[in-house]
Design goal:
mainly alpha, 4 helices, 66% helix, 0% strand
């Protein structure tokens, strides 16, 4: 995904975050590029919020996802 934003979130990034499942978000969180704009500013705050909501909605699935992708 192209990361062309800074502090403000692009609609394309919001849609990607909303559409991604928890495992996809977690994989990006763990293995994404250091300093990625996806984790900064408004986009980063939204990413963390949505990721936590998806984790909390299915705690067992979150554990399974974590074990699946490893560290």
């Amino acid at each position: 995904m192209e990361q062309n934003i800074g502090k403000e979130m692009a609609e394309e990034q919001k849609k990607w975050i909303d559409d991604a499942d928890y495992e996809t978000l977690l994989r990006q969180w763990r293995f994404g590029e250091t300093g990625s704009l996806l984790f900064q500013g408004e986009t980063g705050e939204y990413y963390k919020k949505v990721m936590a909501e998806k984790r909390d909605a299915d705690p067992g699935g979150a554990v399974t996802a974590s074990k699946s992708i490893g560290w």
